[in-house]
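User: Structure please.
Assistant: Input sequence and predicted structure:
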Amino acid sequence: MDINISNYLRIDLVDVILVCISTLILCLVAKHFFWDVILDYFKKRHDMIAADIQAGEDAKIAGETYKARYEEQMASAKSEAHEIVETAVKHAGEEKKEIVAKAKQEAEHIKAKAHQDMEREKVQAQSEMKQAVVDVAFEAAKQIVKKEIDEDKQKSYVDDFIEHVGEDKWQD
């Protein structure tokens, strides 16, 4: 068998024209039956890509809006926290002043009560001392007078003594 390769590799003008005509017929048939389907496919693909791009841009804008709102809320939260701290410090200062004022008032009240108690005890001690002096004087007078006079005279001497000395001298 004799195979000539040049027969297979030859380029003939008739073959080129036939291939061009068959390609043109194929394109015309494809255009007639499939061109609308292909255009619809590309149109849908184009619309889908455009929608994805638009969705991406919308998401980017929404993200930026959300970020701006978040930053605004954070700034607001910082200022609110600062205000809360300032209010707490202010209330603590006022409460401290109230507690100190109450403590001072209570201390003054205790001090005044102690002073009143001291005065009362002083008056009571003076009264007891007067009574003790009178009792001692009465006993001394009784012992002295017992030898010299009877009981009626003794009582009159004590009464005279109390009248002469007077109550206002015992008040000091």
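The mean pLDDT is 84.
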